[in-house]
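3.2 Worked example (two chains)
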Amino acid sequence: YVPPQVRRAQETLDDKKREELGRLKKMVNGLINRLSELNLSSISGQLEELYMANSRKDMNETLTDILMNACVTPVAMPARLMMEHVLLVSILHHNVGIEVGAHFLEAVVKKFDEVCKCDAEGKECENLLALIAHLYNFHVVHCLLIFDILKKLVSIFTEKEIELILFLLKNVGFSLRKDDALALKELITEAQRKANTAEKKFQDQTRVRFMLETMLALKNNDMRKIPGYDPEPVEKLRKLQRTLVHSSSGKETQLRVSLDSLLRADQVGRWWIVGSSWSGAPMITDANSKTQQKVHVGKVSSKIMELARKQRMNTDIRRSIFCVLMTCEDFMDAFEKLLR
């Protein structure tokens, strides 16, 4: 039971909060609508001030909603406009805090997964993929996520997925080659294997052949073989980014998070955000924890095991650590064994 006067106070508080959020949304919307390469510096500065004046949660949610509404449309978004929006997120991610980019990235990836599953007719899937690609281009997210998405698309391997693979490789292919050539090579091998087994499935073989040629061009670092590939706009905006980012820690702020972690953020918590509070079901179930605690450190004598028991080392992992410390030859040996 809530007494009437408390209820009234609660309602006025809710109305006040709603009004504040409405005002904040209007301000952020006004700034995003005016966004262009020329005024990026002033708009990112004004948004930083808004971050200082309002709660981070409200700002993250408001900014993500407005950017998603602006960029995720049923028609294809102009590439330049998309890049400018993502560059703004990247600048805030580096200057304000990594939770800005993390919140936006999670929303984009979840929406992408949702749209891919429901086979929408429009261009939302391409627009969402372009957002993820540019988040990688502007050092918000690590190449691990891009490879996860590519592996997922290769595993499904229908005509729609082939289009998305081509779209992604055209946007970030050469950066992926620079960051992790081995993973790209493995992906190309897997795609070739899929193409061989699925040959009879496609009536139109030209797209599959074109995709394999594009992958081969990437492997051989041959930019001329990829039609419409132009790294100039991204490079120009990267230079602008370097002038607008206060700190020089480009690589440290990259979110090294996998596709699975992002999609299961509600179950496993957001470990990639430092200090992120998390309330929910236990991260690891009891069944899992029992299997995870089986740590083997080779054979140890019964004397050591008896000592471990006397010292009340009551779990497998504690016993293992105790045995390592008691039986190793020197500190390097201990270090190696503990790592294992």
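3.2.1 Second chain
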Amino acid sequence: TPHSGTLSSKNYPGTYPNHTTCRWRLRAPPGTSLLLTFGDVDLEPSERCAHSSLLLLLADPQAGTAYAGPYCRNAGPATPLLVTNSSTVTVLFNSTSHRSGRGLLLSYATSQHPGRGVQRPPGLCLALTPLTVCFSVYCPAGCKDIDGDIWGNPSQGYRDTSVLCKAAIHAGVIADELGGQVTLSREKGITLYESAFANGLHSKRWVKRAGAPGLPTCHLPLPACGDVLEVAAFNASSCWHEVDALGQARAWVAERAALGTTGHSWAAEPGSDTAWLELDLGTRRNVTGIITKGSSERYDYYVTSYWVSSSRDGKNWRPYRGSGGQEDKVFEGNIDSQGEVSNAFIPPIVARYIR
């Protein structure tokens, strides 16, 4: 296995399946030992964890095989960090019939990760921090719902006390359903962090108080590029032809959907149940994300959630499901008609047409 990583039960952070047995074997280089961090052990409680359980087998060359567990919701680990004397650990997860439980989320690292020491700051799933200005965090899946606030936005960076795994999801560097390794750089802090809503996460606005020392800013490498793609043509399932009180007509046509358009936006015909907006990029492009905004002119109109489909020929459409998803991904949209909301495509979409 690599020097660090994460593992989780199937469907995590959703309910784990019934009648499942999973086995992972972690093997570190000779002469090192494994450190395990329990991010989440939410198995339905039962006497002696008979219905669902987590059991660790620690291979000690001198003492033989030792056991840790079984663990479940009513008998969890004593501490979130387990320092073993073993270079080989077998993780056993077992479930019978049950009704609830997120399952298992566990991170691991070796005792001699190159240039790094292992720590677990509040809210961080697992951090691997070298003694340089750049450092790396390994974020397991499901970090989106951990406690802690994000201060800042992708373009300006994040305050040093940000929950960095959540900040990486907010910036679109990693997907919450997969997690992953994130490398950061630390620079001199800035005075103002504007808040933003991105990838289903809110960040907060923070202003440095007068006389307060400049806090370092954590910069995340943004995915791919941030260039705005030009749209060759807009199309829509319908558009709203408004007639105001004076009898004047105004069309909320698809072309008005371009971000930054002065005046009103696109709107589907009232009562449309399956409205869609289509963007023709002119040629096949690599699409890494989308930004949406409501129409604040006269009306408080905005879209709260949406699906995305793509096509290379304009005829055959493929729904976007994200990283290994089995269901069409629902993106969180706007919460008002004023603010912009960004969502990243991880992995990116390669297509000419987007709906």
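3.3 Remarks
The two ends are 40 Å apart (CA to CA).
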